[in-house]
Specification:
This protein is α/β, with parallel strands linked by helices. Helices cover 37% and strands 19% of the residues. The protein contains 6 helices and 6 strands; from the N terminus they run E-H-E-H-H-E-H-E-E-H-E-H.
Length: 182
């Protein structure tokens, strides 16, 4: 099965490439910087660059265009803003292009609760988010058709070695889960 990893604000990094290799073969990366290594010094710099130079709307448009060009259905795996972009498109994606989506801690989803995914979405929600009540988001998402919610004890960014919230045990657990989930 073809998989497409949709990156967070850091974009394509050696750490993300390692994650893709660990998940399995036939994995592509879509990132907001069109494959260019940005080498941000920290999360604050990455966030500032993404917000001022790219934005979620442009990232969604870029992702939509890339999905339209794939020749066979894929599983989308998104992290943070990548997960939020997938969620925004999930109401219009069909099985001819996307089999399912796996969204890790897409915090902007809280602003898009009117979306009803047309494809199966597995949403990995951290136990705590500093900017909003993760428990309330869990209640909303758990009521949606096509959404399977996973609560995790890890923090937002736990899958990214460049994040201050990176968790080696969380990363290992979810890499094994992603590898086994096809």
């Amino acid at each position: 099965m073809h998989r497409i990893v949709v990156s967070d604000i850091f974009g394509k990094t050696p750490a993300l490439e390692q994650l893709c290799k660990a998940v399995g073969e036939n994995v592509d990366i879509i990132d907001p910087y069109a494959g260019k290594y940005m080498n941000f010094a920290n999360e604050e710099n990455a966030y500032e660059w993404f917000v001022t130079k790219i934005g979620l709307d442009a990232y969604c448009a870029f992702l939509h265009d890339r999905i339209e060009r794939i020749s066979s259905p894929a599983t989308l795996i998104g992290f943070s803003v990548g997960a939020s972009a997938i969620w925004r498109l999930s109401g219009s994606l069909g099985p001819e292009k996307t089999v399912r989506a796996i969204c890790f801690y897409g915090s902007q989803v809280r602003h898009m609760l009117e979306i009803d995914p047309r494809i199966p979405v597995e949403y990995i929600l951290p136990e705590y988010e500093p900017g909003f009540n993760a428990g309330e988001l869990a209640v909303h998402l758990s009521k949606k058709k096509n959404v399977m919610l996973h609560r995790t004890p890890y923090m937002h960014g736990f899958m990214n070695a460049l994040s201050t919230n990176y968790s080696k045990s969380g990363y290992t657990t979810y890499i094994e889960w992603l590898s086994a989930s096809g």
